[in-house]
Amino acid sequence: MKIVCTGYGVIAPNTTNIEQYVSNLEKGVCSLEIVECAGPNNETNIVGFVKEGLEQYELDRKINRLPRVTKLGIVAAKEAMNSANIDIEDKRIGVFFGISLGASGEELYQNTIKEANDGNYKKIPITFTHYANMHSITASIAHFIDVKGVVKTITTGCTASMEAIEDALLYLKSGKIDVAIVGGTDSPISIATTYAFTKTKVLPLNQELNLGAVPFCERSLGFAMSEAAGVIVLEREEDAIKRKAHIKGEVVDVISNNDGNYIFSLDIEGEQMLKALKEITTNRNPDYINSQALGIQVNDKIEEKCSKQLFEHRIPYTSIKSMYGNPFGSIGILQVISSLLSIQYGFIPPTIRTNKQGYENMNIIRETTYQEVKEVAITNHGYGGNNACAYIKKYDYIK
């Protein structure tokens, strides 16, 4: 049974829709920026903010009361539904969203904790319980796209939206649902998260854009936090064909696991990532690897290890995080959408800003490469030790 993608939507830094996403990926546009006085000692930091695309929802009181992360998800979901051109009436629908930090970085959330600790009961907003509840985000998105039925929230860190796809595949293949609306949304940038990740020494404080948050470059001192949402619509092949849908590509499989390490330690060997990528690429020939590399040396060296041991550095690698940073729970779905677009438009997006220092043996795409793309493998790693790998193929109709 084939599961195919019939629609997609995205909102990200410098990106308000799919058309702009394609353009930025193809041109290798950096959508990150430096913010001043962001660190604990007034250091600069590199981040990716969404500055456009939410204006219409600020005029709608019901939606404007929702967390920013929810609004991002609604925007991407509505574009995906329009892209799929699907009538969901009388269909069994499943909504699956991957979320990492959710609304915990938002001002209302942060202020409420402070007011509660100070004993200011009257200043606690009635909306706080839903800001604190991760699943309220997904439920709100489902409400505003008028979906009832199966609604699930996956919270496995940065692999969350990739694993949301994994769950959706199971539901579709089992016949429990007819259509899956699968996405990820996160808006994690705050003083609290900046300070917390500074403690773990994984932010590129006081680094310029040509040095910090650069995948596959040993000069990079860390990753760029960003915010984004992405959504895809998945259906069984026969259902998509029956309604004459425009099929964007096939989602072959998703495989996930966990490193199994003590939670306050780091996995520097990457054996579970290696295992997942090996399993999903066995007897397959990806045109390139859409990598999770993000500018943290431990993670990027694991990608290098996978490249060497599985492919002898023959298979090209790239990372869209060089352009978009790491929007936590939504990065997996952004990688999937970028892979589908790569197949559709015939190019491999570049890893911008890197000079390959420390990764000279890898086959890293640094300039947009125009070629036929039929198959893409995707790697994804999350805080907490989860790994997820996906395999995407060009759709070929065979009678």
UniProtKB/TrEMBL annotation:
Keyword Zinc on entry: no
Keywords for the protein's UniProt record, in alphabetical order: Transferase
Pfam families listed in its UniProt record: ketoacyl-synt (PF00109), Ketoacyl-synt_C (PF02801)
Location of the Ketosynthase family 3 (KS3) domain: 1-394
Domain of life assignment: Bacteria
Key word Transferase present: yes
Coiled coil location: none
Family, similarity comment: Belongs to the thiolase-like superfamily. Beta-ketoacyl-ACP synthases family.
Protein name: Beta-ketoacyl synthase N-terminal-like domain-containing protein
Source organism of the structure: Aquibacillus rhizosphaerae
